[in-house]
Fold these 2 entries.
Entry 1:
Amino acid sequence: MPRDAVPQPVRLSDYRPPDWLVDTVHLDVRLHPTATRILARLAMRPNPEGREGSPIVLDGDELSLKSIALDGTPLAGSAYVTTAGTLTVLAPPQRALTLEIETVVDPSANTKLMGLYRSSGAYCTQCEAEGFRRITYFPDRPDVLAVYTTRIEAEREEAPVLLANGNPVESGAVEGTSRHYAIWHDPWPKPSYLFALVGGRLDRISDHFVTATGKKVELGIYVEPGKTERAGYAMDALKRSMRWDEEVFGCEYDLDVFNIVAVADFNMGAMENKGLNIFNDKYVLASPETATDADYANIEGIIAHEYFHNWTGNRITCRDWFQLCLKEGLTVFRDQEFSSDQRSRPVKRISDVRLLKGHQFPEDAGPLAHPVRPSTYREINNFYTATVYEKGAEVVRMLKTLLGEEGFRAGMDLYFDRHDGDAATVEDFLACFADANGVDLSRFALWYAQSGTPHLAVSGHWDAQARTYRLDVVQTLPPTPGQPEKQSMVIPLALGLVGPDGNDLPMRLDDGTNAERGVLLVTQPRQSFVFRDVAERPVASLNRGFSAPVKLTSDLTTQDLVFLARHDADPFNRFDAAQTIALAHLVEATAARRTGRDLPSPAALVEALGATLSDATLDPAFIAQALSLPSESDVAREIADDVDPDAIHDARQALRRALSAALTPALEGAYDRHAPTGAYAPDAASAGRRALRNACLDLLAAGGTAPGLARALAHFRDADNMTDRFLALSVLAHNAPDAREEALAAFYERFRDDPLVVDKWLALQAQIAEPGTLERVRGLTGHPAFSWGNPNRVRSLVGSFAGANQTQFNRADGAGHDFVADAVLELDGRNPQVAARLLAAFKSWRSLEPGRRASAERALRRVAAKPGLSPDVGDIVSRSLEPA
Ligand code: PHE
Ligand code: ZN
């Protein structure tokens, strides 16, 4: 039976400990394509902290119950009741007991990809957040921790590989049959969402890792047959992650084996199941011919992320799903730090902040805004968001900024020490940092509770006579859904005062203290900071390294920003200064286009970028970031209201052409200087050279000039790796309508058997900013390479159209909105999670100009009116439409 279509909201304040605990789980899973039988033996006992005399309430979803027995005796029909979502044992004896439950599920019919399902014939599971209940009846909540033993049985032909969590115990033939079995035991108590099993015909690459204390861990990565050569980079990233977590956080691995399985059908990126990570194959498989530098970087980061969950998520898990950021924000922070250490720290920071501003800021500014730790939800699947992950990581980063390197590590050490084995809360986490450092973090905790992006307005006043410099800071936090009033936040504002020679001036506050580690603590609605002994007019470099996830405006002039873009000692702010100039230009140019005024001059930006391009001391990857302008949605976010995506697109294209024309010789020079010197290697330095060369090509061709396009064609023809080939293909697709079809066809012919490359081909076409794109995308939904059943295909084609093609998704005639609404309805019956994510592309609909806003609202209302919506889509659509 389907789940309740209008689920009641779950509230954090209603949390109660479970009434019954589960100590051990024995599963016997007999795999079968359409009727897999699961025998579960649960050793349970009343929770001393629960309500006395309680019934046993287990969760279940779309299960077929075959039998149930208590301590070996079948339960009478009157002793239990089942509803769509539960099985209740009505009056169990109040003592330790054993429940044996037999269920049957159909993995081949499981299109939601939650619970036990099949991907390219292999059996696999996905249990986070509430998928275990689709395998057996269970108290499916993260604060019920049990020790699991799993026996899997299958046809040897069909599933020669049988994997589950923990360590392998035993395997062999099932006497007298064509079947075989394997038994796995996981000694670490874990919540059900971390359960996993896999059965299938898979190839393996093997390696091993010796931990800091000398234990040998067998490592395996399982992939579709024939794809093992593409798993080498993931294995390398895994070993580096294991070493790094020992060195930086003192976290050692705790089982004899660590396995990763790559599957083609997966709702998310990857999953940290204990000892058996399951990955979307997009984040495992890479070869120079099929993966871009960005793909390699993602693989490295996600392999690390899932591995790091072993301590932050698995050994210490979440008490309830409101605490999701406890594992996700913290683990994102940890994977960001890992990638920063493996690559360029400033460039990693720049791309992380771009992601935050591009995805989290719009979420925080629209109807789907929610706190890093929400206090209520109707469907937990909809809270795997940029706010929980990315803003959650920023909050951990701020803790580190506030406490310093050592204070932060002391807090982490205490957290691991105090809470190993626990299902913990955000309060538990913060208490470790407070206790380890003797500080009060109660106001800092507002970052978890208040949604919305704080705004800091900063102005600087230099007094030549008094030799002082005063910074006035005004803090505001706009109202967000359910939170009309806000309190002031504690904001660590890192800054520098840059003197006329480009060097930082010493910073002494008028009370004689130095701003500790260059960080001011903003805690009040209005606050002033006075620096003394400032002999020359400084330029303030504010929010260095993006020390706080805020929107900052200041009274810096364009000339100040050009100066910072050239001289700031903080690389992030050097980047940000030029972006700020570009953003201001684009906002002004967009307004000019809509009113027929003259476009502003791009001279300041030309000056800043020209200087960056010719600075030989800069990392090429950094220059590439500098050359890439704020996106159309960045501009839309800045405008915030009455947004016309066509005007933004035109303004941005005009700016790109102007930069191209003004900087041609410098761009050509950098392009030529960064030609490849040897075979492709995915390391950061080589990737940086390619990134710069490709950024130059992208701008050169933006002019639409014959030499620019000729260069792009040659780049496409000569490419010996996917990074270069795909960049050239995008440049042609976006800028050369005449060369486009031929290049797209050639690319498809070459890679048609490679679904992950076909995804790039689909995504690119969906992003072309032309009226013909909608028809093209519609047509591609009927292409043999496309399937509504595979989340990667859907996200590449429909997700890219809705999320990365501002002008066509938001077509003035409303056809883009209608198309995406239709796609959501089409998908909802099959895979509600993917459908709900697609629908979230409407999150900024209220900021559109009236015509487009009306068409978005019509599309949303049409979705809302459809009977039988999933809870996932129902939740997103109703929050999206709630009056602002
Ligand atoms: N927990 C996964 C992660 O590492 C994400 C995920 C959530 C995967 C839900 C599947 C289902 O972030
Ligand atoms: Zn995670």
Entry 2:
Amino acid sequence: MKIGSKKYRTIWFENNRVKIIDQTKLPHQFIIKDLKTVNDAINAIKTMEVRGAPLIGGTAAYGMALAVKENNNHEFIKKSSEELIQSRPTAINLKWAVDRMMKKLSGVNNDEALKVALDEAKAICEEDVKFCENIGLNGLKIIEEIYNKKKDTINILTHCNAGWLATIDWGTATSPIYHAHKKGIPIHVWVDETRPRNQGANLTSFELNQEEVPNTIIADNTGGILMQRGKVDMCIVGTDRTLSTGDVCNKIGTYLKALAAYDNNVPFYVALPSSTIDWNIKNFKDIPIEERNSEELSHVEGLDKNNCLQKVLIYPKESKTMNLAFDVTPAKYVTKLITEKGICEASSDALQKMFK
Ligand code: MRU
């Protein structure tokens, strides 16, 4: 997708280097960074220079290739794979991508390993682009159906950033939006997750602006009243881990949006590539929920009057803060899942039928 007039992906390999866009500095600064070592990849995931489940997976895949480049020794590769998997706990794509890389590398000759690793990392990223494009084409059908009845601007609420910045391209939740916008359907997006990290405000609004999709940033607590007032036609969110039961784990606050949508008969869709499905965990209480540094909550970052990035404390110095990064929306609140293979119920039968 576009930044300015130039098309970008979120991660790419160029001149023997892995390149990323540093998302901690968006929307105020656009910085491209090189990842030279597996430790650089681990650090980029931990500090959220790259984030979003599919992009975390793509970065971990390239991280494995960087490990092979640094030291193609079995012990080192194994240790690197474990450290990558531990770099963030909730998004399942991370483990999925590392396991796929390990499988691909097993039994490969030393002199071929780097090429095999780079090719596989590229394949994981290309596959994600295709999956996200298909999610968009499938989700477009839902938007078209609503538009054919309403014949007026479709108001879509999305939470956090499940946009192209969270994937390799297109996004999951935003892909149907971009496809509808390109087809000329009038769309307006309510953008939230304005706390703890401002991912909606900083990233989703930024990327929608670049694609000229009309959008409005709202405080996280505003979604409910907008739904009561009939100002939301549908919600579309992403997911970091979808259980085979259809329960979805996504950025903190998603659950409350789903409850408000349920109470107001607003359809609540979750868009996901199959790499986000966890076929093992059956009870959502067993999903590891990341607790991040409380500074993300007690401080905010923005531009000062001299246009310099500043971080300031906004709460009482002595107060404790708690910063859970994800919550789970039970399947009963999910209208449908939008996947690369089609649209299905958020249920174990429907997921099995679609993917197994
Ligand atoms: O903490 P983040 O920014 O990595 O969380 C991102 C989300 O919660 C996204 O909604 C999710 O990864 C889906 S990405 C297409």
